[in-house]
Amino acid sequence: MDVTATNQPITRDETRGAEGGPRVSRFALCSGLSVALLIAVTLSIALGTVEVGPRQIVAIIADHLGLSSNVTYTQQQDSVVWAIRLPRVILGVLVGAALAVSGAALQGMFRNPLADPGLIGVSSGAALGAVIALGLSITWFGIATTPLFAFAGGVVTAVIGYTLARHNGRTEIVTLVLAGVALNTFAGAGTSMVTFVANDAQLRAIIFWSMGSLGSSTWESVAAASPFILVGLLASTRWGHPLNLMVLGEREARHLGVDTERVRMTVILLTALMTGATVAVAGVIAFVGLIIPHLVRLAAGPDHRTLLPASALAGALLIVMADLFARTVISPLELPLGVLTALIGGPFLLIMMLRARRAQGGWG
Amino acid sequence: MTVVLRCERMTAGLNGRDLLHDVSLEVHKGEVVALVGPNGAGKSTLLSVLAGDIPPRAGSVTLFDRPLASYKPKELALLRSVLPQQAIIQFSFTAREIVRMGRSPHGDMDDEILAIEHAISQTDSSHLAHRIFPTLSVGEQARVSLARVLAQEAPLLLLDEPTAALDLRHQQLVQQIARDYANAGATIVMIVHDLNYAAALADRIVLMSNGSIAANGGPSAILTPAMVRDVFECDVVVTYHPEDGTPVVLPMKKTGSVVRSSGD
After folding, report:
1. A169-191: average pLDDT
2. What is the DSSP letter of B162?
3. Are B44 and B238 in contact (CB under 8 A)?
4. What value of ipTM does the predicted structure carry?
5. Cβ contacts (< 8 Å) between A256 and chain B: which residues?
């Protein structure tokens, strides 16, 4: 993968429009996505083996928040909405937003539209952490053990990669990515090794988790993941401007007054934090960080001040919709969410790769 | 005369290897200084040190009488702008969006549009403004990048070969821009490969060789056949421009025009 950018200028046929075409404004895009997300969230709570109407959903939530309502609903509807679907959809929103924003921010920072949290080893590090907890049946922290291990794995890999890439007071992108390859390989081998020694029950837990799913969402997992994800999302609202300038190049951004090292460090650590948190509660959900920012760029152009918030909304929308599809299409069985996104994401990556190669006239 | 930049016995390099030795240099307000020299002489390294990208290993560099290293990135961005050799951008920003990035150190929006439009029209880029930067030709990209640097409105401009990819007309345009900015009180240091262009453009030529300054002075004093032979290992004749008498350097045709250095 070409990460450092070749010396060739991209000679794209500009009459084809696409990225050069008319752009949707930030306001229009974000409001449209917000409305779509609201609809998707409502559908996601309403649909399933037990159906609940929108008014009943509002009433159930209101009652749990201590506001009384006079809409009637059954006890079963109440427990399905409050205990199962609501935490699940909230987690879907958080996970989708975190993955898409992490992808968008890393792509801007690496100046490469093909970057992804998986690229620098964060996802596989988090996976290794979780698999260790599951495969060795470690329960030091009770139900929070697997999330904490996944989270620690993600942050440790990010810190190792980042430390290795620091040289002469700067961060070398090539080293960071090569370290990512090495860390990915290492974490993958570690995961295989734990899987190899695991017994049948442990194996089932590992496999279920490694395919990525929101199926085990509870209010506890919402509470475990949301602080990390919200901190990252909140911080990302301030990255738009510096990331725009960093697209010019690291030196160029510094010449324009950006403290590039600080931006680098916060982006790497906070995306690791967000990715680790998502892997911890939902397993490995691939490609959201790659697809969503790309689609948003097609619609609204590359400005990160639009890209980051719109990606958060679109990522949340994708995960909520995909999860709704995954759990209703072959009901009562559930399609693993991570498998679904990978099924979409794999061909998508190939198409992007071919487009990029055609645009650049080969990798040179 | 106000000293904008001052290097004193400065040594600097990359990865533990010194590429500049004992460089002392003063640049004054309103000057256009051309850095010339053969490949590998240290021109780009010197420009990087002056820009604050590479910290000097020994000696000092001051900008407006303050050590360069003592400035915060934001402060520095208001005092000097830098044009890199080639901009490589992977995302589809329009030319105008790229130029607008040059305004970011200012933060104020009042005269933003004015400064952007001025920079765009000065560099003859108006017809490029709405186009996607990565789809422009290298020469067009160079003009848009220059517009970005001009929009920054810094009193010191450091330009790394602004004319390398430009046609004759746009080379002259850049010369005119440099002159206008210097007359308005800005200071310009630029790397130039074409000695004749340097002679026509610059108040002063800094001739670099093997990481040191070989000569430093007005074009007529620097561009002599002996000096050019010493530094470029190339026999030339020097004649004078019929209009204003600036030196014009031409390769010698008779004897082998390239004198090989010993050991080659």
Report:
1. 83
2. T
3. no
4. 0.88
5. 77, 101-102, 104-105, 152
